[in-house]
Amino acid sequence: MNTSWRIGVDVGGTFTDFTLFEEKKNDLFNFKTPSTPAEPAEAVENGLIYLIKKYSIDPSTIQYLGHGTTVALNMLLERRAKPIGLITTKGFRDVLEIGRQTRPNLYNYEIKRPEPLAKRSHRVEIPERIDADGMVILPLDHEAVEQAALKFMRDGIDAIAICFLHSYKNADHEIKAAEIIKNNFPNAFLSLSSEVLPEFREYERTSTTAVNTYVGPRMQLYIQKLKERIAGLGVKCSPYIIHSNGGLLTIPMATKFPVKTCLSGPAAGVVGATAIGIEANQKNLIAFDVGGTSTDVSLVLDGKPFFTIERNIAGFPIKSPSIDVSAIGAGGGSIAWIDDGGALKVGPQSAGADPGPIAYNKGGQDITLTDANLILGRLNPNALLAGELPMDVSAAKLTLEEKIAKPLGLSVEDAAAGIVKIAASGISRAIRSVASSKGLNPMDFSLFAYGGAGPLLGAVVNEEVGSRVIVIPSNPGTICARGILLSDRSFDFVQTVLATLENNGWEKTLTAFKQLTCKADHWFKLENIPVHSQVVKYYIEARYLGQSFEVRVSPTVSPRELTQEQFVEAFDTEHKAQFGYDIPNRAIEIVNCRIEAIDRNNKPPIRKNLEPSNNAQPSQRSVYCGSIFGWKNALIYNRDQLSIGNSLKGPAIIEEMSSTTFVPPNYNVSIDNTNDIVMEIIQ
pLDDT digit string (tens) for 222-257? Predict the structure, then answer.
């Protein structure tokens, strides 16, 4: 039998991660390489070249390549793209600027909202009008659309969003406007709100469509370069792009709807963490991924991650189903600095992959979290990436002493420990905030630490979180890439209903789902998905009449098998679970019906199959274990030498290719029957 390979690739701000699955031997391999921020596809190509050579892979045998990317997210955070154009209904030119009259901080009168992605001079009003029932009140002014297209051409605007009032009910005007623009401006990148987000709420629909338009051209260019680089290596399969809800998009879909990829990589990590947690019988997790630039925090309850329909990224509301991930600027590359008041700070600025920490010897000038851990002996200067990236501890010490320790009157180790503590405290606050926002106690969850720096900080973070157990999977630094291999192809379809149950709402709901099912069936056919792999999930978003925001109900059966009474009961239960109360006999309004069409493919194993062993032969190294314990001789283990059934006591360091685990003196460690590291506080 000829072998075939499946590869997951996650491009982070500092490292690009790979997980390979070889189907013949049913084996997994992991690899990391420095990212290339200026051209992210280059790191993907570099990694594939190395892996093809190392494992003697025939590129034509690579049957699957899944890819997580931060291109769209970084563009929003950095505002690096060209301004866009917006065509909208006359009278609605300023929707993006007006927004919602809400304050993220009630008592802050100096809140600065980000500038709209479309300047006012590039927002064009078009005479046309469709009412809330989808009826045409005023026909589309074709000449006005043509003039708008010519204006954008003159102004050098080649990305245009089209968002007309109530187009979610009737998309005809948007479709006609797109045809006119294409006839006059064939190279323009177009986003239609009726395609990107066919839902009510004018501001959110316009904002999401504007974001899609803003990141579209750059994503299109990136995907084209990625395809060319991969094809140049002899890889014949077309890559998939993971989107924010943890599913996979084909290249055409990712190109058309890049807004769905804003949380691409973090979502894959949660998919991986959830699968590993279920196998290890750890179904309630607080997962935190500490990379080189940021930390992503998410909750998994009863083996299911939390999802959200709307989130705010860089100040822009985006409505698109996504795994609920909270990010903060704390990672291995986070820069330590002293503010004007003489206080030590860490992040959110990052040294990234280039130049990176001082210890990398690539020209970095600022002390980072990685440098601090290296100085404390918790990182082996010759162990990063299995020795592929040696680090200079003396250079890091010298700079930390000059820039941090002396100005603060601290010893070098206390300054380094302070940097670690501050970074860990920021992550702890994020964890507590995420848990409390759901009405949950983080002490009732196991911490799931992954990413390159997650296992290094797990115990320090837990000093403030107070969880009983910390779980660290094998190869924690490549969980996002592994999650990509565990993801399914999927696409979401939505239709706004806006009807109360008393006003034929249930009948309208069933009609909406019938139409959505037709769209899902068309997608299955278009993507050549066999019937046995097809899965459909149904969601009903509803609210008590008069409320502003809705609750998401997930029926376990198709809506045609669900009675209205069963839905009401499920809605009341879900509302009470989220808000602590329900209102029996209150009118319920159906807002949106949603379908998730899924291609449920065969999954590779979550981890390698290993047998119990007692071959661990540790070395020793002096490690700083905090102000209470000071410097201790710690046992240094190679993760590959630890296997099921092994146990050890801190202080210890567990090293592997993708990460390092720090075990303080007050922790015991065991390797469970799924080969995860389980750290428990000594009572």
Answer: 999 999 999 999 999 999 999 998 999 999 999 999
At what angle are helices 454-465 and 412-437 packed, to 10 degrees?
A: 70
Q: Where are the beta strands (DSSP E) in 507-630?
A: 534-544, 551-553, 588-599, 619-624
| Tokens found for residue 184 | 């006059």
154's enclosing H/E stretch is helix 142-155
Residue 520 to residue 518: CA distance in whole angstroms: 5
Asked if 356 contacts 369 with a C-beta cutoff of 8 angstroms, the reply is: no
Question: Cα(481)–Cα(242) distance, rounded to whole angstroms?
Answer: 10
Torsion of CA 231, 233, 235, 240, to 10 degrees: -60
Cβ proximity of 677 and 654 under 8 Å: yes
Which residues is 260 bridged to in the sheet? none
pTM score of the predicted model? 0.87
Helix H segments across 192-348? 193-196, 202-232, 251-256, 264-279
> In three state form, how does the secondary structure of 498-528 look?
EEEHHHCHHHHHHHHHHHHHHHHHHHHHHCC
Closest Cα to residue 548, out of 96, 24, 100? Answer: 100
Domains, the chain, with CATH or none: 5-76+233-261 (3.30.420.40), 78-220 (no CATH), 489-599 (3.30.1490)
CA distance 115 to 124: 17
Please choose, from the candidates 485, 28, 511, the residue with its C-alpha nearest in 3D space to the C-alpha of residue 240: 485
**Can you tell me which residue has the tokens 């291609």?**
599
The mean of the pLDDT values for the chain is 89
420 contacts 372 by C-beta, under 8 angstroms? yes
Confidence of residue 193 (pLDDT cuts 50, 70, 90): very high
Virtual torsion, Cα 525, 529, 534, 536, nearest 10 deg: -50
Each residue of 509-523: b (16+ CB within 10 Å) or e?
Answer: beebbeebbeebeeb
Instruction: Tell me the C-alpha distance between 623 and 401, whole Å.
Output: 18
Question: Cβ neighbours of residue 476 under 8 Å, at least 6 residues apart?
Answer: 449, 450, 451, 452, 454, 455, 658, 659, 661
**pLDDT tier for residue 1 given thresholds of 50, 70 and 90:** very low
Token representation of residue 623: 């490690």
Question: Are 220 and 255 contacting, i.e. CB atoms less than 8 angstroms apart?
Answer: yes
Distance CA 305, CA 460 (A): 24
Beta strand pairing status for 334-338 and 326-328?
Answer: unpaired
Longest dimension (CA), the chain: 80
Tell me, what DSSP letter sits at residue 652? E
Alpha-carbon torsion, ordered 125, 127, 133, 136, to 10 deg: -150
Give the pLDDT score at 606. 66
* List of residues 6+ apart from 530 with CB closer than 8 A: none
The size of the chain, in residues, is 683
H or E segment to which residue 423 belongs: helix 412-437
